[in-house]
Amino acid sequence: MDCPCGSGDAYAACCGLFISGAQTANTAVQLMRSRYTAYTRLDARYLLATWHASTRPPELVLDAEANPQWLGLKIVNCTDGQAEHNSGTVEFIARYKINGRAQRLHEVSRFSRENGRWYYLDGKRD
User: Fold this and answer.
1) CB atoms within 10 A of CB 40
2) Which residues make Cβ contacts (< 8 Å) with residue 69, sequence separation at least 6?
3) Among 23, 32, 35, 65, which is least packed, fewest CB within 10 Å?
């Protein structure tokens, strides 16, 4: 099965490695892709675990009926966010349908790396 993040790789060899806990993301883009995939799979546990403690909500409820049908992810730009950095930004566009209507989410997300692990801080949406 292809990974929902759009990498072209199989889920088990891509975001599945991070979501299962077998590996941690080496870059902000890897974390961004795996978080998108977690949204498609309604995996609140992974999303909360990869959300920085300073901005993480106390809970995250993902309901298949209330949540969008995710259609695709496009990484537009990345600034820093490599293994040697402690911060980075990832600009992305995520396409989805909700109530049968096509939508898109355009965001510049900020990431922070602490103790060798990347975390999602927050994002600014268009």
Assistant:
1) 20
2) 96, 97, 98
3) 65
The CB density around residue 97, as the number of other CB atoms within 10 Å, is: 12
Q: Is the dihedral of CA 20, 49, 71, 61 positive or negative?
A: positive
Can you give the pLDDT at residue 119?
Answer: 98
Give the tokens for residue 5: 């993040």
Q: Starting from the edge strand earliest in sequence, which strands make up the sheet with 101-114, in order?
A: 69-80, 87-98, 101-114, 117-125
Question: Closest Cα partner for 111 from 40, 43, 33, 41?
Answer: 33
What distance in Å separates the CA atoms of residue 2 and residue 10, rounded to the nearest whole number?
A: 4
pLDDT tens digits along 75-92:
999 999 999 999 999 999
Q: Record the tokens describing residue 56, joined without a space.
A: 């993480």
Q: Is 66 helix (H, G, I), strand (E, B) or coil?
A: coil
End-to-end CA distance of the chain: 32
